[in-house]
Design goal:
about 230 residues; 10 helices; about 75% helix; mainly alpha
Length: about 230
């Protein structure tokens, strides 16, 4: 049903939490990509669907069979195989994608709570406005305090075009995610995201000449197989 979307106190509260989780998750992923190859960071973060599976079962009371739980455990083992060589190489930043996984699992569950009663375009617009209200004073304060991670800077040249493209692609992706969560349980949709791993591997190889090492590649394969199963 297409009911009119109303920004009630409950919806706004959930949208605020959704926006804060989104900011935190994107910040953690950007930080992870400073230290890790694209495919490794994505693969480690893909413990997220397993977290979603468990949260869907124990928080949203979705029906999860024993075979899915076994696949969840096997997939987590695959993720650990990716973390281990990355941790040896770069240290604790290899754990950042695990934070991304937890944050975005919560983000997806909050989105599911409001997706059925929300217009995706309106939800995206409100989320963008709330994010601006949160980030703008944070950036100004960080810049004034000389905190490097929050220093105010405007992109130029090719960087500006990349940021614009990122904004367009990100907006379209989140609209499609919200639409999908309106019609299907999170546990059903979560494995579809595993297609991101081979895409990230190919893109990382073509653009950055990065390929996972043997142990990480094995972990990626196990995680991918468990997720698809």
């Amino acid at each position: 049903t297409n009911r009119p979307w109303r920004l009630t106190r409950r919806v706004f509260g959930l949208t605020l939490w959704r926006t804060l989780l989104h900011i935190l998750g994107i910040g953690l992923m950007f930080s992870a990509l400073r230290f890790l190859p694209l495919a490794d960071a994505i693969a480690i973060a893909f413990v997220m669907p397993f977290i979603m599976l468990l949260l869907g079962k124990y928080v949203l009371d979705e029906q999860i069979g024993a075979r899915r739980l076994i696949a969840c455990a096997i997939g987590f083992i695959g993720t650990l195989l990716v973390v281990q060589p990355s941790f040896v190489q770069v240290g604790w930043p290899a754990l950042l994608p695990l934070g991304v996984a937890l944050v975005f699992a919560l983000f997806m569950l909050v989105t599911r709570q409001i997706a059925r009663d929300s217009d995706p375009v309106s939800l995206q617009a409100v989320s963008g406005g709330v994010a601006t209200l949160v980030l703008l004073p944070l950036l100004l304060l960080g810049d004034a305090a000389g905190f490097e991670a929050l220093r105010w800077s405007l992109p130029s040249g090719s960087t500006l075009w990349l940021v614009l493209i990122l904004g367009v692609i990100g907006t379209l992706a989140h609209l499609m995610m919200t639409w999908s969560l309106r019609y299907a349980p999170s546990a059903t949709l979560a494995p579809m995201q595993y297609l991101e791993i081979p895409f990230a591997t190919v893109i990382g190889w073509l653009i950055f000449a990065d390929l996972p090492n043997g142990l990480a590649a094995l972990g990626i394969a196990i995680t991918l197989a468990a997720g698809l199963y």
